């Protein structure tokens, strides 16, 4: 089941973040660290109603922030369409639950959410060194459209888009 996150979910979300940071750092991906993302980022997402969690048998397995907020850096890129888009941010799945389709369920939910809101366009980005998410977005049918400097990181972020069939 996918539902909107609530404040009671923050403890598990932060546990997943800590696991994810350790794994990312194990392959020299420093997209996330002790400075980002923080609990306050997720609290803000919850407050706005933009954070969704996936649960199975009462266990929170992953989450994604889905909204219309595009980083300013997106303005410099050559997107295919000039129309409203949903943007997927801060997505992660519990370390012991990866490779079981949880991420695919979350990204498919983003697609359904877009269509329910008469939006056919999705955007996202991830650090160029985040091999797993780059592969995931490509596998999910997203097209690489460019790269940007972001969050003061040394390497660039790859930006992706997907146009949905209505």
Write up what this structure looks like:
The chain has 166 residues and is α+β, with helices and mostly antiparallel strands. It has a single domain, classed as Aminopeptidase. Helices cover 31% and strands 28% of the residues. The protein contains four helices and seven strands. It has a seven-stranded mixed beta sheet with strand order 1-2-3-4-5-7-6. A hairpin with a 2-residue loop joins strand 2 and strand 3. The longest helix has 17 residues. 31% of the residues are buried.
Question: Please, what is the CATH homologous superfamily?
Answer: Gcn5-related N-acetyltransferase (GNAT)
Helix content: 25-40%
Provide the gyration radius in Å.
15 Å
Number of helices: 4
Distance between the termini: 24 Å
Count of folded domains: 1
Structural class: alpha+beta
Layout of helices and strands, plus pairs?
Blueprint: E1 2-4, H1 10-26, H2 39-48, E2 51-56, E3 59-67, E4 86-93, H3 102-116, E5 121-127, H4 131-139, E6 143-148, E7 157-163
Protein name: GNAT family N-acetyltransferase
Pfam families: Acetyltransf_1 (PF00583)
Domain N-acetyltransferase: 1-165
Compact overview of the structure:
This protein is an alpha+beta fold and 166 residues long. The protein has helices at 10-26, 39-48, 102-116, 131-139; strands at residues 2-4, 51-56, 59-67, 86-93, 121-127, 143-148, 157-163.
List the keywords.
166 residues, alpha+beta, Aminopeptidase, seven-stranded mixed sheet, 7 strands, 31% helix
């Amino acid at each position: 089941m996918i539902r909107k996150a609530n404040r009671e979910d923050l403890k598990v979300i932060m546990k997943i973040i800590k696991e994810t940071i350790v794994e990312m750092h194990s392959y020299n991906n420093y997209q996330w660290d002790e400075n980002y993302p923080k609990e306050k980022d997720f609290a803000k997402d919850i407050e706005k109603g933009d954070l969704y969690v996936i649960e199975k048998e009462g266990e929170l397995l992953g989450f994604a922030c889905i909204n219309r907020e595009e980083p300013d850096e997106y303005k410099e890129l050559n997107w295919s369409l000039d129309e409203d888009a949903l943007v997927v941010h801060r997505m992660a799945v519990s370390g012991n639950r990866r490779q079981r389709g949880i991420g695919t369920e979350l990204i498919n939910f983003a697609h359904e959410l877009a269509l329910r809101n008469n939006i056919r366009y999705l955007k996202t980005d991830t650090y160029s060194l985040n091999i797993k998410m780059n592969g995931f977005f490509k596998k999910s049918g997203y097209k690489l459209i460019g790269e940007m400097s972001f969050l003061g990181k040394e390497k660039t972020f790859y930006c992706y888009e997907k146009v949905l069939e209505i």
